[in-house]
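Risk mitigation, structural track. In case the binding assays with guanosine-5'-triphosphate fail to produce interpretable data, a predicted complex structure has been prepared as a fallback.
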Amino acid sequence: MKNIRNFCIIAHIDHGKSTLADRLLEFTSTVAQREMQAQLLDNMDLERERGITIKSHAIQMVYNYKGEEYILNLIDTPGHVDFSYEVSRSIAACEGALLIVDASQGIEAQTISNLYLAIGNDLEIIPVLNKIDLPHAMPEEVSDEIIDLIGCDKADIIPASGKAGIGIKEILDAICERIPAPKGDPNAPLQALIFDSVFNSYRGIEVYFRIMNGTLKKGDKVKFVNTGKTYNADEIGVLKLNQEPRDVMSAGNVGYLISGIKDAKEVKVGDTITTVDNPTKESIQGFEEVKPMVFAGIYPVETSEFEELRASMEKLQLNDASLVWEPESSAALGFGFRCGFLGMLHMEIVQERLEREFDMTVITTVPSVQFKVFSTKDEEITVNAPSDMPEPNFIKTIEEPYIKAQIITKSDYVGSIISLCMDKRGIIKGQNYLTSDRVEMIFEMPLAEIVFDFFDKLKTISRGYASLDYELIGFRTSHLVKLDIMLNGEKVDALSAIVHRDKAYDWGRRLCEKLRELLPRQMFEIAIQAAIGQKIIARETISAMRKNVLAKCYGGDISRKRKLLEKQKKGKKRMRQVGNVEIPQEAFLAVLKLD
Ligand code: GTP
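Fallback model:
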């Protein structure tokens, strides 16, 4: 155990975590050069394309330091706030962390939030000043920021470049020297922390764990403490580039377990594995159920594909335990599913995976947060979709989720960021200068305001110099109303939204304007109306189309006509007919694009 080092890398998105990880693997010959593929740890296609590490992974390296062999387990963590619970679990599996800061960007919101998690778990922090090869790197300023933030000495900071391969040996040496060896009693009852799982269609779910105490043997009967389920440890082993099976693994080690689990829901990150024969009395502290934060409807474009969509969602859920869904029906869209996501990025990923991996064409409706409605009869009703909202006369109060948002930016943008946040019903709670030019601001604001276009707006007004991180702080009473949209007098439930009363008029007006832009013209006039209850608060009209598209082809040859019809048919993908009006996908998400 003395020569094991378990560490993770914490960094803000794009500060170069994956590139640096690749270098460490290369330097320790964990992968031969020819196997080296940029960003090896991101093995999902989608991850690589988006350049985002969506799921955490682990990999073991062997490194010779001062004549002794060290086993270094790198536990990779996702950088996006949607997946922060996974970050917290991978951090809990380590004794140390590389804190990577881009020398051209400085400290950002997720650098700090992840750092606090690491410090909270007593990890040894090794600061790395990355991308020093960039001509516009600011090593002095950024080093000062790091020193201010963690109170280290300048000499503790390792200058590096993942791209140019600078500082790699120094980082590996520091891992061996500065990070403590794991503690834990190999003879105690087994306590292993699940920090991740991966779905493999042939072998079932692979569970990634870190043994805190005790010893796990191949063939042991194991129990997952929080779910209470038992399994046979069919295969255990360590994670190198490929899995290497082992017969016995004990405290301090990181590895994988295969036991024929088919459903991701049975494996909860943060759960404890123990043995049935000699179970631990307590699970590892801090297990949390991850809760979806954002809800939206997903509907097949072709109503006949509902069952196919269900089958695809079921399969997708097998390897994405954080995706929750239930069937719902909409007067406008027919049968579909109400899905819960960890955040907007998670929602986009799910939609993309349904399309790529399952070849489904789907329509996603306006995302919404979860509201709590207290009725006049004092019942508590959970509202995940505007259509679940009771009639106004049954509502006593409505509560909505609030978050604490942490924004880090340059001092130039403080004013405009405060205006933006206030416009989003935010309350400023603190402002703290990290250096003379960088400011950390804390706001409390409704989650619903972040879900829409907040992040894009923040980026725009700060020219990209602002980073955001947030956490849920609870529910608060708000004056909310349900805003309905009607097309030619017919309510389109999928376009309804729950909004703050003070904003409802403005919102209704802008939404009608946006829909006027987005809805294709038809042979007849379309009236677009916004209403609160019975009251119409805004109206726009799309005038009728004068000419038939085919009119152009009069006298023309038939193949041209056919081509035109084909083209129209293609354009029809992602359109839904509601009453006599055709609605394209963009219109369902129009609220995300109100300026
Ligand atoms: P996430 O997984 O999304 O959190 O990103 P990451 O932190 O893993 O960043 P990644 O390694 O994907 O690098 C982000 C971008 O920075 C890529 O375009 C890299 O080529 C570039 N990059 C990474 N390291 C360096 C470096 O040392 N120098 C320079 N100049 N560019 C780098």
